[in-house]
Design goal:
The chain is built from 5 helices and 18 strands. The chain has helices at 29-37, 55-60, 74-79, 84-99, 192-203, and strands at 40-43, 65-69, 102-107, 112-116, 122-125, 135-138, 142-145, 152-158, 163-164, 169-170, 175-180, 183-188, 212-218, 248-252, 266-270, 273-277, 280-284, 287-288.
Length: 294
């Protein structure tokens, strides 16, 4: 069956895009109960239900599989088509995350971020799900974790050419972040990129908008960094850059596993980073290593 929900009134202080937090359900009990009873939910909301406040209840019911088909140009969906071989690397990456106590991300630009993984939910998607309660989005090919409280500390330096997916733009200048106990406490940079990002986050007047949502890396070889240069912003949701093989993705905003909900959200994929789990390098300067490599 099809459940159509009206778009709720706009209450945000700034334009909202690429949040993964659809408010379409608006706590509607009939809709929530219906979704808990089905085996597959094909999510065509603009923003997606993954971080929606209603999703944990639906997920915990243990029946529905969620497939978010993101608002992409058809060419992007074709090029990043979910494939069985992607699932092998996603599962391997998830197993690596679950077995590790610490993730460390470094880069030549100056990034040095530490994430305590102990007790953190780890997941990912190859673009499809095969078990009840699974969550997937297409484009897929992503291994990630939602850190618990007070688990993320350090510095992130986004370089020229890295991406702000909420704005759907390549950076033209560096942005230097300080993160303390999960929250961005400083955003430095001389260019328009840092200015816009800082002003957007501040507009929410919500501390949770500054919190870390999730961190991870991509494994989808069909995703192409140059793709964003070929499309107008209205033609893509920019999900493929979250899943690009070897990219490091970190996000601010909603983290349901840490009890933080907000519409203020940034997905910030970066190239040329090195990711180590308990000292073992799984991504080196933007290239997948070992069994993760293609």
């Amino acid at each position: 069956c099809m459940i159509q929900m009206p778009t709720p009134p706009q209450v945000a202080p700034v334009p909202v895009k690429s949040t993964g937090t659809s408010w379409a359900l608006q706590g509607n009990r009939a809709a929530i109960e219906a979704l808990k009873l089905v085996e597959v939910v094909v999510d065509c909301t603009v923003e997606g239900l993954i971080h929606a406040p209603e999703w944990p209840e639906i997920e915990e019911a243990g029946r529905a599989r969620l497939l978010v088909i993101t608002n992409e140009h058809p060419e992007i969906l074709e090029r990043t088509e979910p494939k069985a071989e992607h699932a092998v690397r996603v599962k391997l990456g998830i197993d690596m995350l679950k077995a590790a106590n610490e993730m460390r991300i470094t880069s030549a630009a100056g990034t040095d971020l530490t994430v305590d993984l102990r007790g953190a939910p780890c997941g990912g998607t190859a673009g499809f799900g095969t078990t009840p309660g699974s969550v997937a989005h297409w484009p897929g090919g992503l291994c990630l974790t939602f850190p618990g409280k007070n688990c993320v500390n350090g510095r992130v330096v986004m370089d020229i050419g890295d991406m702000n997916l909420t704005f759907k733009t390549y950076l033209t200048s560096r942005i230097d972040f300080t993160i303390e106990n999960d929250f961005v406490t400083s955003i430095k940079g001389d260019g328009i990129d840092a200015l816009h990002l800082r002003e957007y986050l501040e507009a929410w007047k919500d501390k949770n908008a500054f919190g870390v949502s999730h961190v991870g890396w991509g494994v989808n070889p069909g995703a192409q960094w140059v793709s964003a240069a070929m499309y107008d912003k209205k033609d893509m949701q920019a999900v493929e850059f979250r899943a690009l093989a070897g990219s490091f993705l970190w996000s601010t905003g909603a983290n349901q596993y840490a009890g933080r909900f907000t519409l203020g959200h940034f997905d910030l994929p970066m190239r040329n980073c090195t990711i180590a789990l308990d000292g073992k390098v799984v991504v080196k300067e933007g290239k997948l290593q070992g069994e993760l490599a293609f």
